[in-house]
Structure formats: C-alpha cells, structure tokens
Amino acid sequence: MSASTNSTPMNEQVLQDYKLLDAINDRYGGVVVEVTEPLESTLFTSMLRASIARWRQQGKKGVWIKLPIQHANLVDPAVKEGFWYHHAEPNYLMLCYWIPEGTHTLPANASHRVCIGAFVMNEKREVLVVQENRGRFRGTGLWKFPTGVVDEGEDICTAAVREVKEETAVDTKFIEVLAFRQSHKAFFDKSDIFFLCLLEPLSSEIQIQETEIEAAKWMPFKEYASQPFVQKHELLKYSVDICLAKKDGKYSGFSPVPTSSAFSDENNYMYFNTRDLEG
Amino acid sequence: MSASTNSTPMNEQVLQDYKLLDAINDRYGGVVVEVTEPLESTLFTSMLRASIARWRQQGKKGVWIKLPIQHANLVDPAVKEGFWYHHAEPNYLMLCYWIPEGTHTLPANASHRVCIGAFVMNEKREVLVVQENRGRFRGTGLWKFPTGVVDEGEDICTAAVREVKEETAVDTKFIEVLAFRQSHKAFFDKSDIFFLCLLEPLSSEIQIQETEIEAAKWMPFKEYASQPFVQKHELLKYSVDICLAKKDGKYSGFSPVPTSSAFSDENNYMYFNTRDLEG
C-alpha cells in the first residue's frame, strides 16, 4: 500500500510508509520533538499525523514540538492538527498536544518575571545608588538602588551580585532577602516579583556601565531616604524602614541555604529566617 | 501612483494607498497591534510593511503583534519581516519588532512559575494533608501539604487560600510566607519559586476535589513529619523545622502588607517581617 495523505485513522502498513518525526521520551509519558531541519509544510503535516498515530498506539500522553523561529512555516500546519501554544522565547516556539481523552496535565507556562533591588551600604552609612539613562526614571534625577531582572536558570542571590557588579563594578556578598513585592500586569498579563536584597560591599570604587547607567555614587542613606519620590511611595518608604531596622540589628530577613531537592538532583537555594530557626 | 508590493522604502503616496494595521500606542513609545479578523498572508505582509514605514516616520520604537492562534497563518509572514517571538499563551502568540537602530529595550519574558504549599494546622496540632491522584506522587502513599500554581495576575496569599479550598473545601485565612525555594529547569529552561505559606483554618470539614485529590485528612503533625520521604529531603525537613518553630512562637516569616506602587495605580502586596519592623 502506498503512502496517502488523507487523515483517516492509519493502519500499521500505512504508518510504516511514512517517515516519522524524531522524538525523545520525557519522564511524564510524553514525547518531545525538536525540528532542526527545514521541512516543507505538507510533508511535515503527513509526518506529524503518522507520528501521532504511532504515539497513540504507544500510549503516549503529551506531545511537545519545539520549533526554532527559522521554521515558522510549520506553526500553522501544527495548529491545524490541533496543537496549541505553550510558551515562546525569542528564537523558538513550543507547541503542545494531548493524546488521551480528558483534560491535559501539562505544566502551566511561566507567569512571573523576577527582579531584584540591591541595598548595599558601607560602614559610613552610605548607600550605593544609580541614575538610569533609559527606562521610566531617565532624566528624573532620582537616585535609586541598582535593580535588574533575574534570568531563567539564575539564582536570586547570584543575580543581585551580578547586577551590582555590572552596573557599578562594585563587588558584593549576598546577605539576605529583606522583603519582596508581587505586582501584576507588569507587561501584558504577566506578573512580577521584586526581591529587595541586602548585600555587603567588598570593594568601593565605582565604574559605571555606560549603556544603562547615567551616574552612580555612594550617597548618605539619609539623603537617599529624603528624596521626595522615595517619601511619596509606600513601597520605597517601607524599604527604607526595613533597611534601617536591618542596619540597626533589629530586622531578620530570609537567608539563602543550599538544599537538596525532593524533585531533582540539583541543589537549590531555600530562603528563610535562619536567625529565628537557630535562636 | 498605484500600490505596489515590492519592499523598497515607500514614499508618502504609496503609504497612503495601503490600508494600515490598526494599532494602539503603548506608554513606551511603541505600538500594539491585535489581529482580530482573518487576513490573507500576502495582504498582511503588505499592510505590515506599510505600517512599519509609517511608524518609523512617527518615531515609534517597539512594535507588538498579538496573534490569536486562529490566525497562525500570519506567524510566518511576520517572522519573514523581521519579527521575533516574545511570549505565548495557549490561545495567542506575541511577536515583537524594534524600529530604531541599536539594541532594543523591550521587557524580558516571564521566566518563573510560582507555586505555593499550604501549612494548615489546627488547635490539636493536626496538619491538613492530601494524597494526589496524578503527578509524581501518585500511588506513593505520601501525605503532603496542599500545593498549587499561582496564576498570572493572582496574589500569592489569594492563591494559597484558593488551593486549600479547592483541594479540601477547608476555609482558611492567610497568615504569612514562612520560606521560599527557587529551583531551575522546572519545565524546559524555566525556573520555579515555591512559597511555603502558613494559613489558619477557619473550618474543619474536608471534602476532596476528586479530579486531583485521592484523599485528604487532618494528620498529627508528628506523623506527617516522620514519613520517610519527608525525613529524607532537606527541603521538607527544613519546612518541618520552620513550621514547628512557628507554632511554638519562635519564628517570624513575611506577612503581606498592601502597598501603593511607585509604578502603577494598583495596590500590591509587599511581604516582609512585620514583627521585627514593629518590634
């Protein structure tokens, strides 16, 4: 029997006549396909149908197709076969499909961006502050803590040290998370968690990152706190109170503790109030 | 002069001959297009080129195109014009483009999923535990805290109360975040933050959510803590220690405090050690 392109259920002979998509098994009873070579869309559709028929026979559940952006011609054919979008990064789109009857149990997409703000104070009670040359505070004259986005796969404590180093060239040691704030609709419908972090300076000389930072300096904490913008916003006012309480030894945040995970072999950081637990 | 479909720079007359894409301005000097009607791909390409030429004249920067999944035929044409992927949800793909010279300043995509675990203990020192009927703990006999995923746009404190209610029908009041753990490669390259939350029970009768939960009960805390799986994993052992210290009045986590934001008109929750700040 020769290969045919209709979409009726395929028998074993027909299945064998089609080239199937290369797939690897995931640990949840599903398969992952990564398209790495250009494919003409009609051929892709035939291969996809034959592959799904095969995976159905094998009792597979979720199907993932990772489509690099250079193969964007295959998005529409995959959607026509019933795939939907799971997530996207600049250079690829992840589509998914659920073979069994009933609702799928595929994991939810990432919903939050994670950011850090770095409170770095020296022994003269001067705080490390910057003025940004782009973004919403450009040209406002506001002196603010160094801030930045935590990359996927990056620890919060690593991101804080990295951002301070990148923006000001100051070396620091991460101490603890003092507070965090969750906000919504940070961009489109996504949410945002901002971690206020305490870092200890290990060096003092400042050299600014010119693409992002207009100016940076060590500023007396009182002067930072008295800026009208800081006084006006509860988030920043609370941050000032927390930082002061911390510096006076009255406040305990969450320190990172490396822990083994129940869910993978990797070590991860757990953040908690270690002073209270030990005390 | 009549409309032409070549891609050379367009003069004012040619621009006027093309229908432009409907777009709304964003607050960062960019535009957002949401495709709501079916469009043939060649026509879309012509409209997109004419629109970009217009936006360039207007000094626009970022361009966003939100493509509902039923218009997946337009993904490939947009990519061919230089768009790349920003993020995707099951029913749409967001593409973006940067008009000015130089590197773009478009916001990063969401990188983290946010989950909660709920520690709910009654006055008899019994803790609310469940057995799941799907996922990795299915059939293991492990009794665990109710857990779940925080939706985008949902407060952590709201999600914790919702998950306990959904899984067990028990009403609770959110008290504080006791600890959190960040882990990586939770799914593909995305990361995960898990917040361990303390909740106070407001009711005791259990009714399970049968799609997800096999069984639920109030279990003596000692019995929960002595499960071999809990003893074996540092994350869970620390959680037990923290929960016990909390119940004995020796531990302070982060409580949610509603705050106005410097960045939007919405109220958001800031979480910090309110006991230390007041004390």
Automatic annotation (TrEMBL), chains A, B:
It comes from the Eukaryota. GO terms for molecular function: ADP-ribose diphosphatase activity; metal ion binding; NAD binding; NADH pyrophosphatase activity. Residues 111-243 form the Nudix hydrolase domain. Signal peptide: none annotated. Keywords: Hydrolase, Metal-binding. PANTHER family: NUDIX HYDROLASE 2 (PTHR13994:SF29), NUDIX HYDROLASE RELATED (PTHR13994). Belongs to the Nudix hydrolase family. This is Nudix hydrolase 2.
